[in-house]
Predict the structure.
Amino acid sequence: MPLIILSIPSSALEEQSILITGVVALVGSTGMLFRKRSAISVASASLLLLIIWGKVAGDLHGLAGPDSALLLLEFMLVIFLMDASSATLTFDVMIKRLEGKNDDISALARIRVTRWVRAQLFNLGKLMTAAFVSSLGLLILGSLVSVSVNQIALTGILVLAAVLAIFILLVYRREPEQRRRSID
Amino acid sequence: MFTPKAILYFLFAGGLLTLAVFLSDLEIGILILGLASLFFFSNLLGLPENIDLRLDRTIIPDETFGDEPIRVEAHIQNLTNAAISNLEIHETLDSRITVEKGTSETTVSIGPSEDAQLIFEFPSPSRGRYEIGPLVVEVRDPFGFYLVEKEFGPETLSVMPRPQPVSGVRLRPWHVGPWPGVIRSRMLGLGSEFYSMREYIPGDDPKRINWKASARHNELIVNETEAERVTDVMIVLDTDVAFFGPTDDELFERGVQAAASFTRWFLRQGNRVGLVLQGGERGTTPAGFGKRHERRILYLLATAKPGRATLSTSYVMNLLARRMLPSRSQIMIISPLFDPEISEGVKQLTIAGYDTFVLSPSPGPPSAPRDQAEEMAFKLAMLERSITLLALERSSTVVDWPTGVRLPELISRVRNTRRKVTS
């Protein structure tokens, strides 16, 4: 996490990189220590915003930004860590509920929750890796293709096509359905 | 459906796209690509397209008298041909239930055609009917972008009042049914009680010959017995026990306990028994017989709650007795007798030929009266109740049931009808 903040140009953070790193680290650590989901979310969201701000500030002030692949890696790593900590917190809550119960039923419940957290962390890692690799692949592919025609109409069509493609990717296989289905 | 988290990411992606276009910076667009890929893979690999689950829930036991722990086993079978890695199961429970073993809420991951188990145990709660469920299953992809929620209907746990053994209550209604029972019918027939004597007729059982009377009359005389039959009984439980806050529940539970005990006792003697709950919530079970009918009445008693009556007990009793019972049957009233009008109702029933038996749980004195006025109020209320008891005594059998006396003990003292019985 400190590496992510420190990789942002310090002039974009008004030369306060160390202070900001300290504050974000403190909020995140407090959240993990006291099992406060909101504090963890705030720390993760501020990290995401700092990454974006670093890029935007770089564009506005003409500062040298991080490499595109590194930017993508940092961005996705923050999302992964946020979800991993959320899974760990849920696991802690479930285990806490079984605290002081030493019977067979509770022992089985503990085993089930432990299996769940393992599977959850593995799946998070798997999906994140797949998403990162495919994005990186597309990034490399994109860098090989260049559009020489600089016309506003073409740019507009390309943006529209990109939005459409993203929309399809976002809602793939997910059709609107009712919130809750009751089964008797 | 997409979760609020997914919507936040959509908005975030939208913001990034705007920024990318505004700043003409494709590198910001790369981040959208990352997010979109994450959604794509989450949808593709994180969650099956159709989720098909089946619940098999068992409550052991689902009917209880409240003296054993209750175990709930919910098996959620994954009928989808793919693994579901992030499943949150939540069994909704009544606030009076405290889970002691296991948990009613868990997160699991299940493979294709496997089942997830949610097992928990809790001590039997107090008398009542409880809903176990609905069971809500929330299926999400690992990132929680998409949610499929399924709800499985609840099942019922009935904690019924345990009937106590009561014996010795002798009912004498005028109406008796055609089947043999234990109610003396004021008619000749098979029975154990002496009724009259007559001359011997060839074919009579020699065991029935009364030798002393035969010697006196110089001819053979046989004893005749009174036929014992079944009858129809309606138990009226007065649930309007509002009297003195702290003692209300105890009074009410004693009434429920007595109703359950008498139901079992009368049904085991072969009688037809019905129940009327009269109070804030009314309920009736028409007269019937058999073990299944006993369960029906105990179910109704399990749901009984104390409450202020909107209609007078006297009116309800008279109305329902005529509708639900043959004339001149037996009516048993279980009431703390806080409504003085009840004596008038009982009088009307007696005039109509019904035989009435009143069991009145008596409230104990307040353990720590706040002031002298409260003590005086209690004494006045008890005085009024005594007057009602005296009025009832003229037309029915009245049993005053003080606190601390067990029902079987009290009932064993009841021998003759039409007499007030006190401890």
In short: Residues 302 and 318 of chain B are 25 Å apart (CA to CA). Confidence is low (pLDDT under 50) at residues 418-423 of chain B.
